[in-house]
Amino acid sequence: MINSNLIPTSLTQGLPRNFFDELGKLLAFKSISSDTAYKADCKACAKWLIEFLAELPGLEVRPIETAGNPLIFAQTKQRPGLPTLLVYGHYDVQPPGDRDTWLADPFEAQVRGERLFARGARDNKGQTFFWLVALREALHANSLAWNVKVLLDGEEESGSSSLLSELKRLVPELSAHVIAASETAGFDSADPALIMGLRGAAILRFSIHGASRELHSGNHGGRVPNPAVAIAQMLGKLHDESGKVAVPGFYSKVQPVSPTQRELLAQIPFDSAAYARNIGVSELSGELQFNALERVFFRPTLEVHSIHSGFSGPGIKTSIPIEAQAVLSMRLVANQEPQEELDRLVSFLQSQVPVGCRVEFLMQRAIARPTSADPRADLYTRTGALLRKFNSKAPVFLWSGASLPVIAEIQNIVKAQPLLVGFGTADDNEHGPNESFLLGQYVKGFTFARALLETDYSGSFPTKVE
């Protein structure tokens, strides 16, 4: 239970009763989806959420049982003429990691200063629950301006495999004009941000094999292939000297940065030199003909994440290894298809295998499609104006370099416009120890969610959802 006495009264005025206490109860569940030891905790968390939603007037709620953790689906009575909003969130969380790195029990929410600390406080229980509370208040006030659907995922932190396997079957239920999610952060400090795009992602693990056994480097070196050298040579050919990816055709579907995008980027205060200092590098790299924001928002990348070969214990073992492995990933932008780009990469690597070696592809995964939206669309201009009403600064338009597979798949299959408005900050430390969420940002998220639910967006959407 959260000690409400530690919360400034300036934050609690005009808020629903038990506004923070209910979130504290939700944060207490150890709903770690990546560890089957916590399966019962995940189900208990889902049960609590179902009971919370079942008390909302006019809301139909049901669990969707899966091979993994249950999905939760809810919807208001659908009224003709109103646009439909699908709210997506997830109730599972990352493992806490080393408990000694936490200042307190990660599943016992605590207020310290201006922040609420607990695993899931920001990602994503806090940013999901303010939508549910906003929906409750709008239903009680009979002020909803949308048909609303809610989809809560119990496996987002472990890949959403159950939801993705069920998605096509659920299309009729999930059909909507807009899919809203608060998974992201704002820009800088606590400035509001509308996310106009997410990069897609694909991952590849491969190995290079040489001789059938380890060989003495003195007796055999210089006349047999060395997989460690071979993989280094291959990885060195992935990029050219200008920082571009050298895989043929990799940029064939990449669109140039548009004038509208450049205009919006110019409004973002970003100091490249300060960013470099903050992350501890002397200068930035990549495609130098693009600025630092353009490289992350609008350009695809190919990264090497790990390289392993040979003996790695203490001391030195002077033998030629029999194998070397590497893990690569691609971040992709609008119009690029993950599987197509994986196929290009595989073909390129096959063409670069040195004589005497053979390549083996151990894992290929097209993780997420890229998403994109037009910032000039009515949905975003109206939502930007709505955010401006309770923020000291106008919202900025951002494109995220990260990937959210579920959002991309729902957008692709259901054909809903994405509305990604996050209220996190850079200091929340989501996924790390002592995750937290600014109390003021939680309040701001609730305020925004309720305002949007009660704002008439009729006329903003050209198509009817059946």
Topology overview:
Elements (H helix, E strand, L loop, with lengths): L8 H4 L6 H9 L11 H16 L4 E6 L6 E6 L7 E7 L19 E3 L2 E3 L7 H16 L6 E7 L7 H14 L3 E4 L11 E6 L1 E10 L5 E2 H4 L6 H10 L22 H7 L6 H8 L12 H6 L3 E9 L9 E2 L2 E10 L5 H14 L6 E11 L2 E2 L5 H11 L7 E5 L4 H10 L2 E5 L14 E3 H15 L13
Parallel strand pairs: 3-6, 3-7, 7-17, 8-16
Antiparallel strand pairs: 1-2, 2-6, 4-5, 5-18, 8-15, 8-17, 9-13, 9-14, 10-12, 11-13
Account of the protein in words:
- The chain is α+β, with helices and mostly antiparallel strands and 466 residues long.
- It has 14 helices and 18 strands.
- The strands form four sheets. Strands 1, 2, 3, 6, 7, 8, 15, 16 and 17 form a nine-stranded mixed β-sheet that branches. A four-stranded antiparallel β-sheet has the order 11-13-9-14. A three-stranded antiparallel β-sheet has the order 4-5-18.
- Helix 2 packs across helix 4 and helix 5 (161-174) runs parallel beside helix 13 (405-414).
- The two termini are 43 Å apart.
Radius of gyration: 24 Å
By CATH, the topology of the largest domain is: Aminopeptidase
The CATH superfamily title of the largest domain? Zn peptidases
- Give the overall average pLDDT: 93
In CATH terms, what is the architecture of the largest domain? 3-Layer(aba) Sandwich
Major β-sheet, in short?
A: 9 strands, mixed
Q: What's the shape? A: globular
